[in-house]
Amino acid sequence: MQALMMNSQLMISSILVHAERNFPETEIVSVTADEPLHRYTYQDFAARSRKLANALEKLGAKFGDRIGTLAWNDYRHLELYYAVSGSGMVCHTINPKLFPDQIAYIIKHAQDKLLFVDVLVMPLLEALKPHLSEVSGFIVMTDKAHMPQTSLENVWCYEELIAEQSDVFTWPHFDENTASSMCYTSGTTGNPKGVVYSHRSTLLHALGGSLPDVTNASTHETIMPVVPMFHVNAWGIPYAGIMAGSKLVLPGPKMADGETLQFLIANEGITYSSGVPTIWLALLDYLDKSKTKVHKLSRVTVGGAACPRSIIERFKAYGTTVVQGWGMTETSPLGTVFCLKRGMEDLSDSELVDLQCKQGRGVFGIEMRIVDENNQELPWDGVAFGALKVRGPWVASGYYGMSQEPGTEGCPVDEHGWFETGDVATIDPNGFMQITDRTKDVIKSGGEWVSSIEIENAALSHPKIAEAAAIGRYHPKWTERPLLVAILAEGVEATASEIIAFLSQTLHKWSLPDDVVFVKELPHTATGKLNKLALRKTFEDYQFPESH
Amino acid sequence: MQALMMNSQLMISSILVHAERNFPETEIVSVTADEPLHRYTYQDFAARSRKLANALEKLGAKFGDRIGTLAWNDYRHLELYYAVSGSGMVCHTINPKLFPDQIAYIIKHAQDKLLFVDVLVMPLLEALKPHLSEVSGFIVMTDKAHMPQTSLENVWCYEELIAEQSDVFTWPHFDENTASSMCYTSGTTGNPKGVVYSHRSTLLHALGGSLPDVTNASTHETIMPVVPMFHVNAWGIPYAGIMAGSKLVLPGPKMADGETLQFLIANEGITYSSGVPTIWLALLDYLDKSKTKVHKLSRVTVGGAACPRSIIERFKAYGTTVVQGWGMTETSPLGTVFCLKRGMEDLSDSELVDLQCKQGRGVFGIEMRIVDENNQELPWDGVAFGALKVRGPWVASGYYGMSQEPGTEGCPVDEHGWFETGDVATIDPNGFMQITDRTKDVIKSGGEWVSSIEIENAALSHPKIAEAAAIGRYHPKWTERPLLVAILAEGVEATASEIIAFLSQTLHKWSLPDDVVFVKELPHTATGKLNKLALRKTFEDYQFPESH
Question: What's the CA dihedral at A253, A255, A261, A264 to 10 degrees?
């Protein structure tokens, strides 16, 4: 039996309409390449977004067209989020820090019709000119006074373009499963792959992600996304924050600069922020050095990489709670978030930090499970670890231009409809998930799984070790055993047996590396992560010194 | 362009699955007809709901069948919410306090296949026996020891029925627009009309309604819905509370009893509750009389009727904030809720209460507008008042068995897709909506609208007036002018001109009644509201004493 409820499709434009109507006076503050502290209201933002929608139409962009952006976190990028998606086009955010050939590949693969580009990114784009013949126009995100000289053709100035447009535009209504934005994810192998979000997935993610036990986004918050807007839609804050009527602060290109962050947090009264661990290290180091404070900053969401305990403890001293979360480009990204359950109110400080070190509990909307090699579900006992799989309305069903058939090559969804995250994790009885490794990096030894990350963390606590990577290598009896590859700190020497003896104090016997090899450098990916694929290749013919 | 996100349908059963997995130990406490204080966990609740789903199958209920309930707020009713909807059947909650002929009409109209009945409601049902020939079975919501004698046939005992079932049941997945529950609404005219909710509307309502600035439902709350589960799904708390992992307290049949409410609030540590104004009057009177407290009760949501200022002020003295809301059976019910905006932190106490007296701001998901007689939108200036219209994914598109064609007879949606609430309201520049009248009760005088409620409230502040109703009556020059019909307090006398002189101190000249008629009693509806339709009939031939 069909229900008798209105068929109101979930539209990204409805966020803008609601926000303008209910919070016209709320501020959005931006740092941009051409203005140190730009400030306007939701009302201005909504009117300019409508002008931009008219401008897109004028430039010949059509429903379904991909509109690329190469830009930092500021109000113009925010206007693009709403004008492009609101018009039924696809806002394709591109990371300007990728390798140039990856950027060229992504623009071509997505068939971007127009590119909106930050002034700072223009030199990069000019270098790519021969690869951009299919792009019909470039819009430089600045005003006339700051327009750069350029060898590119079909170039417009953002401010000039929208200045001549009407601010009257009626957002169209259409199927909520229409593509709203896309974001390419690049791994260690192969070409970047495009994740395509929908209006529906974006709105459900914003609703589920704003709940009190998730990010608790409210009109009373001042939110600064330090995670870039080209990185999984800045974790959804440009949607959730506007939906709630929060004051938004967009830090522009200087996101890794502790001084800028402290200035914005203190002067704009930021209560909530989010970013990757390295960003917070920069802020904390600046705070320590400058003896400045971040009084109102009640919490920061940390994701993108495991958050070191030290960051949690250092933030605590400044009165800020670290909320660790886990997600992927393919999960919009919200999968898990740190949140205490009722009954956990009396934890000791160190028990609390232990939990903050985990990746958090599953949010409503995301189902998660861990499975063994035979796809059998493992218990939530905090000990068993297996491949992490998730499903839900904001999880990718496949990549752009690749197979959408579950269980087939190129499709990240298994034949039972679960997305394979590529992570290996434990889940404790309270539902706190902890990533222990990547599926492809876990060391499979005698039917047991050994976490390479656990070995690396233990090794890094040795004062003589500067950097370390653990990989599985062939062993005649156990199939694989762990090999530790380490860089020694400057000017020190060590032996393998000395390191192994040290590790035996903290690691289970089964997780102890069989050997340690010292090297001068370790391979890394474009985004700075250890490239274990390359390392395994280097040590392809390695043999353990003795077989026990 | 289609997005590439999982096609995960929004299912009510997903709330149960999430809750059992993440909060197995969380408590649900109930007062029932057969047990003063029943207590179990989410894990028990989920297992019994699966048993009930198997029982429904055994009784021959099929996908899409309507399953009626005549019951109070307790755990068995909660199990029905999830087992019935989760199985793809329609949980049809019926108000046992309606007139018996209305109940018979509703059961017949919905074609209820089975009826689940509280012991206390059995006598009523037996009296209706001749009208229930199409119902294939009656399940008494109790255990064997408390089974009543009955003249009905095909009767089962709830506890016996589920005791023999397996607790293994896999919730089916299906289209989220499938009917999940239904609730009839009865007005002053015509037969009750059935509103049919979907899985989608219910989940979106739970998500949107749980946001920090709406009800802020979190795992740390202990929530007691005092609004009945047959009244718009207890305003959605059985979904939102379980989704959040809150402790739930269900007060059973004694909901209007101040002593029971105080006992539950104090002993179970209730932090948040919701109900109609009369419930809270009963509680406040009991608190005053017994000198007891409600320490942890931080807020109560009040809806269903305008909340008198005195309730807001009396609750404040007990440390509890009143959150007024507005909604209807047709809006699931959440339309507006009191919530301060950022920048309103420094209001004085009386300014704050002034705002709490309004019906609140529109929640994300509900669009609202006020329009004049020509359907032209009116400004949000707090002065202009017009017909209130809403739309959104949890708003009814029509009634069961009636026209679904917007703008036609019997369909509550106008030709532009807006639901006509039947209320007349103002909206202030901050978005706070205030109901000023019902569309059919507003007095249309010389092209202006006069609020009958404003006149009645002013009249009730006169010490000699016990009850009052204002209606529009024919006037040769102004089409209509207000007539006040009043009941005097016992043993006093008054004249029309005395009352009008008093009213002129607070009402605009235009709103002053042209005459006052004193009567011994006023007509009321089944639910206790003034029946102005009947009153207008009584005064059909009334003529104003002089025409000015």
Answer: 40
